[in-house]
Design brief:
- This protein is of the alpha+beta class.
- It has one domain: first zn-finger domain of poly(adp-ribose) polymerase-1 (2-Layer Sandwich).
- 32% of the residues lie in helices and 31% in strands.
- The chain contains 3 helices and 5 strands, in the order βββββααα.
- The strands form 2 sheets. The chain has a 3-stranded antiparallel β-sheet with strand order 1-4-5.
- The longest helix is centred in the last third of the chain and has 16 residues.
């Protein structure tokens, strides 16, 4: 995916996170992004936790991260925040 723009904003409306699919009520800090994927223009919002997860794994997804990616990675009853902690632990273990 070619990302044309991405910036942190405070939302004025409720939005669903593109990656974890949770609904966030306004006002809420989120990353608003837009870009081209497979020749089509896309835009959306990502929560800050999922944005941090994306930044840690971005090298694995040269073509972009699919919708609902973090949601699909979660164990039963696991939150994206818990997943991020697990991911950081695994990364730390690999680098030590």
């Amino acid at each position: 995916m070619y990302v044309a723009s991405a910036k942190e904003v405070i939302t004025r409306k409720d939005h669903q996170c593109f990656s974890c699919l949770r609904k966030f009520e306004a006002p809420c800090p989120m990353v608003k992004w837009s870009g081209v994927y497979e020749g089509e223009w896309n835009s959306g919002y990502t929560c800050l936790t999922c944005e941090e997860i994306h930044q840690k794994i971005t090298e694995d997804f040269n073509d972009g991260i699919p919708e609902g990616f973090v949601n699909e990675c979660l164990e039963r009853d696991q939150t994206p925040e818990e997943y991020l902690i697990d991911l950081e632990t695994k990364i730390d273990e690999r680098t030590t």
